[in-house]
Amino acid sequence: METWSEFATYGEAASAEVIAGLLRSENVPARIVSDEPMAGLAGGFCVMVPAALVRRAQWVLSQAQLTDSELSFFATGELGDSPSP
User: Fold this and answer.
1) How far is residue 85 CA from its own chain's centroid?
2) What separation in angstroms does the CA of 45 have from each of 14, 52, 73, 75, 81?
3) Domain for residue 27, yes or no?
4) What is the pLDDT of residues 4-39, one digit of tens each?
């Protein structure tokens, strides 16, 4: 039986899905575990990867061309201030 480790936690499912999809596209298996008590209620979404591939997952994420604001959005679900025209 393979041991899975917590890789990252996000406040919304969409953010966790983006990161899980990125990892899967680089051949790192990923699954999402939610602590939602009921569907639709706020909870955390944890991206899990096989324990043996945590370092690879970290490398994949570090190589992703994500901006600081995108990473912040994935972590918080909130958009930062955008510059005025």
Assistant:
1) 32
2) 9, 21, 14, 10, 25
3) yes
4) 999 999 888 888 888 998 899 899 999 999 876 666
84 falls within a domain: no
Give CA angle at 23 (37, 19), nearest 5°: 45
The domain total for the chain is 1
pLDDT exceeding 70 applies to what percent of the chain?
69
Q: How many CB atoms lie within 10 A of CB 7?
A: 23
Given this model, what pLDDT does residue 17 score?
Answer: 87
Q: 21 phi and psi, to 5 degrees? A: -65, -40
Query: What is the Cα–Cα distance from 42 to 64, expressed in whole angstroms?
Result: 28
Contact 44, 10 (CB under 8 A): yes
Q: Which pLDDT score is estimated for 50? A: 97
